[in-house]
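User: Design a sequence. Structure:
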């Protein structure tokens, strides 16, 4: 696995060194906290559960988080609001701050911005080049090594405030996550099948019970002739147009 990543190491290395990366992450996260936590009111639900997975998950176990994309500052500001500030300025100790993906024509439009976003653990993707571009392989390998990756599966900014359609193949670059999702859907399908069988069985049982308790409909009962033989009711024949 290490040999696979050797050609792409410059993509993930901090251009201004470890201290430069810490300063970048700490400064940006502090700005995000000021905007969302102090300047505005932000409600975070189940934050303790999220932090448990972030800070105390099994060593070597990767983490992928997803969210809808309503503005260009969703990352890093939303991430900054959810994570303690100390986690950013101690990055040089745990290397656990998220990796992010950003379109090259937005985040890497000049040399300074490119170095700034690279220092902030943001990988540049090129739109239209699909899943086989090297940076996607780097992102998958980061997760395989136990890092945290945050993605926007919609692949664009939407203003509806809901999660839109996922970009095709966004899980394909990380086989381990794809397998997990396949396993989840297999289990979900099995549960749905069992639930459906139980529901239909109970409905059938209830219908039979109602049928046994209901008063017979005489109009639908077969007639019995004098000899005791059952004969079916025959509807009268309507005259045809030619008659």
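Assistant: Done.
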């Amino acid at each position: 696995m290490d040999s696979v990543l050797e050609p792409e190491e410059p993509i993930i290395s901090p251009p201004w060194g470890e201290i430069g990366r810490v300063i970048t992450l700490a400064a940006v996260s502090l700005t995000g906290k000021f905007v969302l936590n102090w300047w505005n009111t932000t409600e975070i639900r189940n934050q303790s559960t999220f932090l448990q997975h972030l800070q105390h998950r099994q060593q070597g176990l990767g983490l992928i988080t997803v969210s809808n994309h309503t503005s260009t500052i969703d990352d890093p500001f939303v991430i900054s609001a959810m994570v303690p500030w100390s986690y950013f300025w101690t990055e040089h100790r745990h290397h656990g701050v998220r990796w992010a993906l950003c379109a090259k024509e937005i985040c890497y439009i000049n040399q300074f911005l490119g170095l700034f976003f690279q220092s902030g653990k943001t990988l540049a993707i090129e739109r239209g080049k699909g899943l086989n571009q090297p940076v996607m392989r780097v992102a998958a390998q980061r997760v395989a090594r136990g890092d945290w990756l945050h993605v926007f599966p919609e692949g664009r900014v939407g203003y509806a405030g809901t999660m839109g359609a996922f970009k095709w193949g966004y899980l394909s670059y990380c086989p381990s996550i794809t397998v997990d999702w396949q396993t989840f859907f297999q289990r979900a399908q099995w549960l749905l099948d069992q639930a459906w069988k139980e529901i239909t069985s109970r409905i059938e049982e209830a219908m039979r019970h109602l049928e046994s308790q209901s008063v017979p409909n005489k109009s639908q009962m077969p007639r019995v002739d004098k000899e005791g033989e059952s004969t079916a009711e025959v509807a009268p024949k309507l005259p045809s147009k030619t008659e």
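DSSP finds eleven helices and six strands in the chain. The CA atoms of residues 35 and 169 lie 34 Å apart.
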